[in-house]
Amino acid sequence: MADTTPPKKPKQAVALSYDGKTAPKITAKGQDLLAEEIIAVAEAAGVHIHQDEHLSNFLQMLELGDAIPKELYLLIAELIAFVYMLDGKFPDQWDNMHKKIVAQA
Predict the structure, then answer these.
(1) Looking at the domain assignment, is residue 61 inside a domain?
(2) For the CA atoms of the chain, what is the radius of gyration?
(3) SUPFAM superfamilies in the record, alphabetically (predicted)?
(4) Helix (H, G, I), strand (E, B), or coil: what is residue 38?
(5) Distance CA 76, CA 96 (A)
């Protein structure tokens, strides 16, 4: 009898760096054991991890040091903005909007 179990997809990880001035760049990527190590290092450093198989598949095609393509700017910008908010960082022009929201809650 044939095994109908789908093949296991390799675990993968891609790390991005962002300096606030230029497009985010690929700083690490890997599969299986290397992916697990990248994730472990990120977790130990308190880096937020976003899990998205399709985004990871696309980013795996890029080379280390490559900037993300323009087609991903909006998506990555939204992720970075969300992480900043999780860390309690808000743009100055928000005029402490987050404190006003908390105060009203």
Answers:
(1) yes
(2) 18
(3) EscU C-terminal domain-like (SSF160544)
(4) helix
(5) 24
Element (H, E) at 85: helix 73-86
pLDDT in tens, 64-89: 999 999 999 889 888 888 888 888 87
Q: Say which CATH number the domain at 29 has.
A: 3.40.1690.10
Nearest to 26 by CA among 60, 79, 64: 64
User: Is the CA virtual torsion 46, 52, 55, 58 positive or negative?
Assistant: positive
Contacts 24+ apart (CB under 8 A), 91-100: none
What domain count does the chain have? 1
Can you give the residue range of the structural domain that contains 92?
12-104
Is there a domain that residue 74 lies in? Answer: yes
Integer Cα distance of 48 and 29 in angstroms: 16
Q: Which segments within the chain are labelled E, that is strand?
A: 12-17, 25-31
